[in-house]
TrEMBL record:
The keyword Chaperone applies. GO terms for molecular function: protein folding chaperone; unfolded protein binding. This is Prefoldin subunit 1. Binds specifically to cytosolic chaperonin (c-CPN) and transfers target proteins to it. Binds to nascent polypeptide chain and promotes folding in an environment in which there are many competing pathways for nonnative proteins. The keyword Chaperone applies. Belongs to the prefoldin subunit beta family. SUPFAM superfamilies: Prefoldin. Keywords: Chaperone. Heterohexamer of two PFD-alpha type and four PFD-beta type subunits. It comes from Liparis tanakae. InterPro entries: Prefoldin. GO terms for cellular component: cytoplasm.
């Protein structure tokens, strides 16, 4: 009688282990995305601050591709 219970426990444990690994991967991916978006946000803020310090008559150019 103990054998079927052990098999059920092993199966449930392995399913939870797979689910845990999947969740950990998703959390790592979310953390990487947060880090990347934070860098993009910081870059945009710094660019905006630098551009706002320029006089209105200053000509600005925007890059449109690789050189």
């Amino acid at each position: 009688m103990a054998a079927p219970i052990d098999l059920e426990l092993k199966k449930a444990f392995s399913e939870l282990q797979v689910k845990m690994l999947d969740t950990q991967q998703k959390v790592k991916l979310a953390d990487l995305q947060i880090d990347q978006l934070t860098r993009v946000q910081k870059h945009a803020k710094l660019t905006s601050m630098e551009v706002s310090t320029l006089a209105d008559s200053t000509r600005l150019y925007e890059g449109v591709g690789r050189m």
